[in-house]
Each structure stands twice: as C-alpha cells, then as structure tokens.
Design goal:
alpha/beta; Rossmann fold; five-stranded parallel β-sheet; binds ligand CA2
C-alpha cells in the first residue's frame, strides 16, 4: 500500500480558531479526518503532518523523496502556507528530490493580496488546487490516485 504525505506549513495549526471568513471553520484535525477517509477510499495510507518551521518541511520532503524513489509513496499534498510565497528552499527540495507534489491552498490566493499571487512551488508542482477549501485536499489525493493508476 502506498502512502500519501499531506504536509501543512506555518499557522495551519490555527485553522478553525480564527479567520473563519477566509479559511472556514474546519480544524486541522477535521482536515486530517477528511484526508484519512479519502486515502482509505483510494487504498492509500496517510501520513499527515504540520510544522511551523521551514527546515522541518524541507526534511519531510527529503524523506518523502526517498519513499517515492522506493515506490512506497504516491506523492505529497503540500499546503506550505506563507512559505509558498517566500521559500526557494522548498522549491529546491521538491525539485531536488523529484517527489510528486500537488500544491493546495484552502483560499483562492489569486483573489487575495498581490503578495499571495506568486508561488515558488507552482513551477515544481504536478498540479495546483486553490480556493476549494478542505475539498481541495481530497481532490489532490484523487489526483495522486489517478497518477498511480495510470503509471
Ligand atoms: O489558503 C491557503 O491555504 C494558504 O496557504 C494559507 C496560508 C496563507 O499564508 C497562504 O497565502 C494561503 C495561511 C495559513 C494560516 O492559516 C490560519 C488559519 C486560521 C487563523 C490564522 C491563520
């Protein structure tokens, strides 16, 4: 059974506690439960993580790259939070490991402040899902299932 790594970046541990008009009322635990259900439906195991630290996220992508090369990982669903807009290190980690990564954002970043319009991750993503809330994570898992089935 392949694993999907769902990796969440800074401040996403605050989900459901503040800014519900932007991010909805879903908590990170709700998001994990949703991902777990969709992974079970697609025959995947789930590895769900959140970190506020860029280096921890880089290390998780390195680990994911090794699992991808070993054939035990379907890919990474990555919501890097604000690091999306700043992190060349995460760009390099995805590119350097060759991990299959789908970039997800709960909000439609293109309808928000200009500083959220640029992503360092989109050029190295297999696909990008924005603005669909928690459902975007489930759709990203579906996309990884389709890739695995097609391979
Ligand atoms: O829309 C998304 O998923 C984002 O990745 C969320 C990031 C933001 O910096 C990106 O531009 C878009 C922020 C996550 C912070 O989440 C909070 C949730 C509740 C209260 C405060 C922050």
């Amino acid at each position: 059974m392949k694993t999907v790594l769902v990796l969440n970046g800074p401040n996403l541990n605050l989900l459901g506690t503040r800014e519900p008009q932007v991010y909805g009322s879903t908590t990170l635990a709700d998001l994990e439960a949703l991902c777990r259900r969709r992974c079970e439906a697609r025959g995947f195991a789930l590895d769900f993580r959140q970190s506020n630290h860029e280096g921890v996220l880089v290390d998780a992508i390195h680990e994911a790259g090794q699992r991808q090369a070993a054939g035990t990982l379907a890919g990474v669903v990555l919501n890097a939070g604000a690091y999306t807009h700043t992190s060349i290190a995460l760009h390099d980690a995805v590119k350097g490991t060759g991990v299959v990564m789908i970039e997800v954002h709960l909000s439609n970043v293109h309808a928000r402040e200009a500083f959220r319009h640029h992503s360092f991750l989109s050029p190295v993503a297999a696909g990008v899902i924005v603005g669909l809330g928690a459902e975007g994570y489930a759709l990203a898992i579906d996309a990884l299932a389709a890739r695995v089935a097609a391979a």
